[in-house]
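User: Hi! I'm working on a homework problem where we have to compare a predicted structure to a textbook description. Could you give me the structure for the chain below?
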Amino acid sequence: MNTLLDKNGLATSDIFIYVYNVNPVTNEYIYSTYEFLNQGIGLPAYSYIEKPLPEKAGFAICRGESGWEYIADFRNQVVYSIETGEELNVTELGSLANNVTIFKPKTAFDKWHGSSWVTDSEALHKLTIVQIKEKKYQLESIAKEMIEKLSDAIELDMALPDDTFKLKEWRKYRVLLDQIDINSPHNISWPLPPAK
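Assistant: Happy to help. Predicted structure tokens:
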């Protein structure tokens, strides 16, 4: 024990002394203060006279049972669940849990394989096919609606001068949409719709 304090941690004389304060919950060093202690008075709660370790990137300085120690500090860093890929924020001191990683998945279809993310190509392909089907259906619906409107106008002798041409262009467009092979999503070249 320091000669300024006795074996019970009480001041041996009236003294000014630097003390190093810790968070009462985490024991993390937070700041130092210059204190006056009357003889027979102890240190303020959660404070120590031993100087903390120097700062070290990626670590917090904490007071352990045997003195100052470095504890891994990932607080305020984003990590990712290796089970779901979900983004999480670290709020406590210490090493990362075994079910998280600092590496961000590249797609929503990545699965963790030991030390890295691997994209589930089959699941990604299935979603791409579903999205292409939806887009194709929407475009075919628009084409169908335009063809019906133009056909009605022509059939009822209410067509504008270029409606017959427009009808033919919309029908061609619908055929081109129908010819799209949704199973080859990377080779799709969507046709441009005719003017309305």
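For your comparison, note the following. Residues 15-72 form one domain. The chain has a mean pLDDT of 94. Good luck with the assignment!
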